[in-house]
Amino acid sequence: MATTKVSGELVDLNESTSESGLKMPSGTEVNRPTPVAGQIRNNTNETSASSASCMEYYNSGAWQKINNVPLPPEFGIALYNGNSSTNNITGLGFAPDWVWIKERGPSSEQSNLYDTSRGVQKFIVSNSTAAEVTGSSNRLNAFGSDGFTVGSDNEINDSGSTYVAWCWKANGGTTSSNGNGSITSTVQANDAAGFSIIQYTGANSSGTGTFGHGLSTAPSVFIIRDLENNSNWIVWASAFGDVTKNLQLQSTSSLFSSNIANSTAPSSTVISISADNDVNNDGKAYICYAFADVSGYSKFGTYSGTGSSNPITGLGFQPQYVMIKSTTSSEDWAIFDASRGANLFLTANTTSADQSFSGFSFDTDGFTVPSTSGMTNGSGQTYFYMAFK
Fold first, then answer.
1. Which of 142, 168, 194 is the last residue of a domain?
2. Which residue range forms the structural domain that includes residue 354?
3. Do 233 and 266 sit in the same domain of this protein?
4. Sign of CA dihedral 307, 313, 318, 320
5. Residues contacting residue 18 through CB under 8 Å, at least 6 positions apart
6. Among 301, 300, 295, 337, CA closest to 316
7. Close Cβ partners of 268 (under 8 Å, ≥ 6 residues apart)
8. Do residues 225 and 318 share a domain?
């Protein structure tokens, strides 16, 4: 760490050879030093938020707590009942930038995916290769500071139906031009949450390409969709262990080689793409959702199926959302969330309503998949997951 020295009463906090260096007492009442004004300490007799200790400073003859303040949410889940009219969905605690809506039942309807970069009423569906649709005002017609508003369309707001919306925060709808790659992109990045929404125009007449993603670290996962043509949803992840392979969100297909990443993993500035039309059709508009692992908030990885109850640990948090896909066999994309309950799942690649599921759990350091499902835990199979707190 760089050192800055200034004159007067301020001292070098990195100094290790004199008494002027920063000292951080830590302990209980027994070993606390005699306090002086301006002193700080770590009090292990006190707690703050989820921390087992509390930072304090000495002022006006007393120790004052420096309370931990939880970070604002970057991901949230909204459950709501349809009313076939204008329906304001609130309670997220933040302004969402990517909203993925799915009917839970009783009907089977396709998912609707909206984002603030493309704007209201424009949606794509995860279970289909169909191009982007610009709907009328009866679709999602407003993004709000605490949620969103939907109109009367039965896919997202039918009276008598129930719905779930999985919501992510990017940059409040504010985008910027990014010239880091050979293809100029428009990005809306939330570096703290490791999430970026990226728009770019294909340029495969020039061959392969790169585009900037706006994050400060290399994405672990990116999902790309051609907005203008019927095409595949491309899902690439570093956890696959082979930069040339990917999955397709609308498909049950296992991992296959298409080399859409041009044999190049994402860097801290750009994502590389081949000349494949699914990611780089000349003159066509694309949307990309990029994710980087964030300690304590998001994790993307793989695990091996055992055919028996299988705890997946090491996430560093208790997730409230997990999406799972087998990379080695033909299975659905299963989505679990804590708001609907661990005994239910939906699928990204189908229109199916909520389905019952037994034995799944959200754990303090990960999640557990049951013994009875090849969709999440077939013996000898490999599975990819995306988890958010």
1. 168
2. 298-388
3. yes
4. negative
5. none
6. 295
7. 215, 216, 217, 218
8. no
User: Tens of pLDDT along 101-125?
Assistant: 999 999 999 999 999 999 999 999 9
User: In angstroms, rounded to a whole number, what is the distance separating the alpha carbons of residues 194 and 74?
Assistant: 10
Same domain, 211 and 255: yes
Q: What is the tens place of the pLDDT at every residue in 236-291?
A: 999 999 999 999 999 999 999 999 999 999 999 999 999 999 999 999 999 999 99
Given this model, what pLDDT does residue 67 score?
66
CA 226 to chain centre: 20
In terms of domains, do 181 and 276 share one?
Answer: yes
Residues 282 and 322 in one domain: no
Q: Give the model confidence (pLDDT) of 139-164 as tens digits.
A: 999 999 999 999 999 999 999 999 99
Q: Are residues 92 and 192 in the same domain?
A: no
- Is 307 in the same domain as 251? no
Contact call for residues 127 and 111 (beta carbons, < 8 A): yes
How many structural domains is the chain composed of? 4
Distance (Å) of CA 146 to CA 33, 93, 98, 137, 219: 46, 5, 13, 20, 27
Q: Which of 70, 89, 109 is the last residue of a domain?
A: 70
Predicted pLDDT at 5 = 39
The tokens describing 345, both together, are 């799942």
Give tens-digit pLDDT for 321-366: 999 999 999 999 999 999 999 999 999 999 999 999 999 999 999 9
Same domain membership, residue 183 and residue 160: no
3-state helix, strand, coil in the chain (%, to 5): 5, 40, 55
**Between 136 and 46, where is the model more confident?**
136
SS3 277: helix
The pTM of the full predicted model, rounded to 2 decimals, is: 0.84
Distance of alpha carbon 45 from alpha carbon 194, whole angstroms: 34
